[in-house]
Amino acid sequence: MRARVFFGLLLLLVLATVLTVQRGWLFSFWGVPAYLDPFSALQLDDPPHLWTALKLQRLNADLDLCFDFMSTTAWRFQRIAPHQAARDCVLPESLRLSGLDRGVDHAAIKLSSPTLLSCPMAASLALYERHAMRPILASMTSTHVVAIDHLGSFACRNIGSSNSGRRSEHASANALDIAAFQLADGRQLRIARDWNPDSASAPVLRALRDGACPWFQSVLGPDYNAAHQDHFHLDRGRSRICR
Question: Closest by alpha carbon to 92, among 171, 177, 152, 178?
């Protein structure tokens, strides 16, 4: 009996070793796309798949891996060392994001101002732009974003700016509030004005809200409460909600 258990464990060890060392060959042999390898690094152009959430979580645990990911994108950023960002808020290593450079397959995007973000939050924004914002606007408006107006990212405060309770994700620069999207044809999708069902832009904004949900933990807009009537709150916190 013990011998049988021993050889069973040995076989599992051999299989695990083969899958770890030779997984690239195995994926190629079976014609499985490399991005479906759960151990491979997250790539900007990888379509959403079974392991996307797991790979995103790895960026939280390994900031070097996260910065490596951001370096493969066209987003402009400055790496910021851990520092005391406010009296009661110490930030781990983060970045200051200033915009997206023009590429062969996409237009440049300006931010209304450079913004301090956690690296995982910036990575989610890059993925959101690539896999949701860009295709949604191309199909629904036949144009693209050239600027994003935001209300800020870092704020050393509790949720709802209350005197007690849980810290906001803004306190760790792990959130971004987007107020409007400026389009290449001159139109502006402003949440405070165009979320109204009577607005011709309302369906586009709702699609942009829904499209953010796979890439962020929390996506809050005007349907959530009055405090979010003029922006989308996007964050990479622990709570999972899309509303």
Answer: 171
Topology of domain 74-242 in CATH is Muramoyl-pentapeptide Carboxypeptidase; domain 2 (3.30.1380)
88 DSSP 8-state letter: T
Is 235:196 a contact under the CB 8 Å cutoff? no
Tokens 């629904």: give the residue: 140
How close are the terminal C-alpha atoms of the chain, in Å?
A: 56
- What residue ranges do the domains of the chain occupy? 74-242
Beta bridge partners of 233: 177, 220
- Distance in angstroms (rounded) separating the CA atoms of residues 189 and 180: 5
> How many CA within 13 A on the CB side of residue 37?
21
Candidates 205, 218, 235; CA nearest to 136 is: 205
Tens of each residue's pLDDT in the chain, 243 residues: 666 666 666 666 555 555 555 555 555 555 567 777 888 889 999 988 888 999 999 999 999 999 999 999 999 999 999 999 888 899 999 999 999 999 988 999 999 999 999 999 999 999 999 999 999 999 999 999 999 999 999 999 988 777 777 889 999 999 999 999 999 999 999 999 999 999 999 999 999 999 999 999 999 999 999 999 999 999 999 889 999
Strand-pairing partners, residue 175, are 235
Number of H helices, E strands in the chain: 8, 11
- Outline where the chain has alpha helix (H): 2-21, 23-29, 52-61, 63-71, 119-128, 134-141, 191-194, 202-212
Cβ neighbours around 44 below 10 Å, total:
16
CB 144 within 8 A of CB 108: no
